[in-house]
């Protein structure tokens, strides 16, 4: 009996070591930069972090990231000046761009289309409108020098808060010893990513026992009544108004980037009536016959990103008609 | 409780340690632990249905005594046997088949021109494993009736025999002559047996998690949306279902047999590489062996088996397959599935080739199979896979619709996985899996029978890596045969 237990333990240990080596060799794990909250209360990533984010259901997509001095994933550092033309692109994981190499981001694609323009990408997974407006408010001096600000808005998720509060709990969780261990043992990082550790987590948190029959249920599609939708839209609109009131909003140079088919008409009407400009990329996405999102998740694929870069570039060109090209050094 | 759940991962070592270290003073105490563990294992799903298992256990325990007491009075003994059959088949009839009969009756009347509305169907759920444990308890009464077994007076052992958790919900359907004897006898820890058990458990998990669960989303997608696919995709779907159901059920059986070994108990083999069969008869000697032998012993042979005229033998074969189909589920699709197997089996039987491969495997004395054998395997796989259209489709209309779609859209079209996985990964996985199964084809109970320790270690690591690579956390992890 003792022999069985001892040999089992040895075999399990050796197999785990072999798997750790395999996972490292084939880079099956994903790396993620350290996150922190700066002195202005802005959530960002630790500057100088480089690595490879691995995505895809078979971990087939490897993208290099590079966290610049500002704490965001970009190939360039941000140094806004009066004599340059800069665009700030702010948003969540869609802008953060861990599904593409940092030197081929939406910002870079815009720069390729608008020569001389510098695009500053402030992408951070989980950013909502509160995060975005608070960021602009916190770095007011920089943003005063930036010529155009594009805020990516996912209506369904981004207006749930009326006020910004830094997510200290999540940051603390990422910095906890458990997560540190997970990040150092690549097999654990990989296991966590594919969901195989989920049952273990549920066991530790007690969910395994409270929701044991959940696995037998089919997916339930959440539907809302028109009254519930109206109530939600009103709440989102109130939140938006409050955020604008709290953190400010320069209508002359700030533009929302949104998909009108996924945004409430109430909100769009409000924007139209009150001078909040927006770029609607839904038409461009509808026109194309190619897929615009990655096949395994909802983030934009290269073609989708190309279209986004195109609509933003065209918008900037139209808005600044005096400048057909944007040569370096020219300021409109 | 599912084998592939975190609860089981904790449950098994706890029961194992208690069994060998705490409750090891006597067999009776060990059996009490097995009963408690088995009832917890089953009750984890729904404790209310424990009463059915308990009732089935008590009825057959008492019936067994009565049959033995009247063993020389065949009429009385038969009457007692009927009590067991009526009770167990009554349970099955109520929980599994009642609604089917009512609906079929309503449909039949409707065909005759009368439109009636069914108000008799019951709003009941099918208790997990009911077809398995009722057949197991019935086999006990049958064996006593046929004078193959003396009933046990040890109620504790009998309860443990019926509820033995590794095989309670999906078999193998054990005979009392094999399992009950082991439960009544003293058991001693055997290192080799336990190691073999752990290897089988690992191999079973690979079949379930890497093969069956990874194929499930593809098969579901193709069968649900069959009207939108071309012939190439539909053929792919049913072929993959063949591998899915094999991985799922044989994986379960391997885990069950392996777990039993950890407790010093040997269960019968349930799968012997059926995908390597050279004709349909051989397939049935290798697929779900515990069920096919059950039908053979308790239905086919009592009806005269092959010892009667050719015509009657053919009738017996047809009955066996139709009943076997019906055993799987209360649906005409399963009856058609059984009927098709009868159609494919009967010619083999009439040609006298049904026992031809009973004692040997493909490539018996060679490394590689002959071209003839490969063609035979391909033909058998094609026939069996064709019947799977009925096995997998929810209704007969869907089965025929699926076949019609193949016929009317007979062209190639590349298939895109619903989640965007590369299909080539699955083809490589299946190719490697089949090659490996061919290599180990002579012993289904030893999937890692290699002399070199390093080779074995590499294989263990590769199997675990395979599970990780093909793990899909979005899949319903239940076993297909739980619904039967």
TrEMBL record, chain A:
Pfam families: Lipase_GDSL (PF00657). GO terms for molecular function: hydrolase activity, acting on ester bonds. The chain crosses the membrane at residues 9-29. Gene3D superfamilies: SGNH hydrolase (3.40.50.1110). The keyword Transmembrane applies. Signal peptide: none annotated. The keyword Transmembrane helix applies. InterPro entries: GDSL, SGNH_hydro_sf. Keywords: Membrane, Transmembrane, Transmembrane helix. This is SGNH/GDSL hydrolase family protein. The lineage of its organism: Bacteria, Pseudomonadati, Bacteroidota, Flavobacteriia, Flavobacteriales.
UniProtKB/TrEMBL annotation, chain B:
Keywords: Acyltransferase, Cell membrane, Membrane, Transferase, Transmembrane, Transmembrane helix. The keyword Lyase does not apply. The keyword Ribosomal protein does not apply. The chain crosses the membrane at residues 6-22, 51-68, 80-98, 118-135, 313-328, 419-440, 452-471. It comes from the Bacteria. One of its GO terms (cellular component) is plasma membrane. It is a multi-pass membrane protein. One of its GO terms (biological process) is alginic acid biosynthetic process. It is found in: Cell membrane. One of its GO terms (molecular function) is acyltransferase activity. Belongs to the membrane-bound acyltransferase family. This is MBOAT family protein. It comes from Cerina litoralis. The lineage of its organism: Bacteria, Pseudomonadati, Bacteroidota, Flavobacteriia, Flavobacteriales.
């Amino acid at each position: 009996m003792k022999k069985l237990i001892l040999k089992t333990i040895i075999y399990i240990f050796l197999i785990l070591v072999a798997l750790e080596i395999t996972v490292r060799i084939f880079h099956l794990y994903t790396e993620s930069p350290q996150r922190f909250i700066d002195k202005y209360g802005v959530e960002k990533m630790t500057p100088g972090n480089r690595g490879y984010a691995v995505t895809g259901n078979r971990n087939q997509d490897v993208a290099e990231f590079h966290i610049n001095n500002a704490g965001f994933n970009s190939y360039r550092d941000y140094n806004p000046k009066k004599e340059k033309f800069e665009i700030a692109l702010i948003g969540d994981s869609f802008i953060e761009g861990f599904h593409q190499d940092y030197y081929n981001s939406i910002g870079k694609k815009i720069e390729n289309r608008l020569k001389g323009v510098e695009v500053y990408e402030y992408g951070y997974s989980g950013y909502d409108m509160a995060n975005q407006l608070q960021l602009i408010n916190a770095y007011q001096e920089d943003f005063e020098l930036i010529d155009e600000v594009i805020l990516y808005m996912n209506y369904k998720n981004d207006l749930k808060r009326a006020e910004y509060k830094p997510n200290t709990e999540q940051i603390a969780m990422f910095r906890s010893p458990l997560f540190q261990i997970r990040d150092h043992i690549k097999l654990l990082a990989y296991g966590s990513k594919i969901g195989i550790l989920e049952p273990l987590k549920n066991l530790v948190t007690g969910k395994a026992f409270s929701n044991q029959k959940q696995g037998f249920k089919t997916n339930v599609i959440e539907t809302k009544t028109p009254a519930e939708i109206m109530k939600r839209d009103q709440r989102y609109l109130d939140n938006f108004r409050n955020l604008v009131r709290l953190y400010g909003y320069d209508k002359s140079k700030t533009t929302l980037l949104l998909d009108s088919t996924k945004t409430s008409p109430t909100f769009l009407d409000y924007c139209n009536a009150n001078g909040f400009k927006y770029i609607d990329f839904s038409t461009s996405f509808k026109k194309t016959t190619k897929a615009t999102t990655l096949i395994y998740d909802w983030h934009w694929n290269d073609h989708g990103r190309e279209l986004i870069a195109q609509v933003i570039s065209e918008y900037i060109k139209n808005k600044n008609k005096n400048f057909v090209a944007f040569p370096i050094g020219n300021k409109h | 409780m599912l084998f592939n759940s975190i609860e089981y991962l904790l449950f098994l070592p706890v029961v194992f340690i208690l069994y060998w270290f705490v409750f090891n003073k006597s067999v009776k105490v060990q059996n009490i632990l097995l009963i408690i563990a088995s009832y917890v294992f089953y009750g984890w799903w729904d404790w209310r249905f424990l009463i059915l298992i308990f009732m089935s256990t008590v009825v057959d325990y008492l019936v067994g005594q009565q049959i033995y007491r009247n063993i020389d009075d065949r009429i009385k003994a038969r009457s007692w046997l009927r009590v067991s059959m009526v009770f167990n088949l009554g349970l099955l009839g109520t929980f599994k088949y009642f609604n089917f009969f009512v609906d079929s009756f309503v449909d039949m009347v409707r065909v005759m021109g009368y439109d009636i509305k069914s108000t008799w169907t019951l709003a009941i759920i099918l208790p997990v494993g009911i077809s398995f444990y009722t057949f197991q308890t019935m086999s006990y009464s049958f064996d006593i009736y046929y004078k193959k077994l003396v009933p046990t007076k040890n109620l504790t052992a009998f309860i443990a025999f019926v509820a033995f958790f590794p095989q309670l919900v999906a078999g193998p359907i054990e005979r009392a002559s094999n399992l009950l004897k082991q439960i009544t006898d003293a058991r001693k820890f055997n290192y080799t047996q336990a190691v073999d058990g752990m290897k089988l458990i690992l191999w079973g998990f690979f079949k379930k998690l890497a093969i069956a669960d990874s194929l499930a989303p593809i098969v579901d997608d193709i069968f649900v949306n069959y009207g939108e696919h071309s012939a190439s995709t539909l053929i792919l779907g049913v072929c993959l279902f063949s591998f899915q159901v094999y991985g799922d059920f044989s994986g379960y059986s391997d885990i069950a047999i392996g777990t039993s070994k950890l407790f010093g108990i040997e269960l019968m083999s349930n799968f012997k590489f059926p995908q390597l069969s050279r004709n349909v008869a051989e397939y049935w000697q290798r697929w779900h062996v515990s069920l096919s032998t059950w039908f053979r012993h308790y239905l086919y042979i009592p009806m005269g088996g092959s010892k009667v005229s050719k015509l009657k033998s053919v009738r017996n074969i047809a009955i066996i397959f139709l009943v076997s189909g019906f055993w799987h589920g209360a649906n005409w699709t399963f009856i058609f599935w059984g009927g098709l197997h009868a159609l494919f089996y009967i010619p083999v039987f009439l040609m006298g080739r049904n026992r031809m491969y009973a004692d040997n495997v493909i490539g018996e004395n060679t490394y590689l199979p002959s071209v003839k054998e490969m063609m035979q395997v391909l033909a058998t796989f094609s026939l069996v896979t064709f019947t799977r259209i009925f096995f997998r489709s929810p209704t007969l209309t869907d089965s025929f619709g699926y076949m019609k779609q193949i016929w009317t859209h007979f062209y190639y079209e590349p298939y895109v996985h619903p989640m965007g996985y590369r299909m080539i990964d699955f083809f490589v996985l299946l190719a490697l899996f089949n090659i490996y199964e061919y290599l180990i084809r002579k012993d289904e109970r030893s999937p890692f029978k290699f002399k070199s320790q390093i080779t074995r270690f590499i294989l263990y690591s590769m199997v675990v890596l395979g599970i990780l690579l093909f793990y899909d956390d979005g899949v319903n992890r239940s076993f297909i045969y739980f619904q039967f």
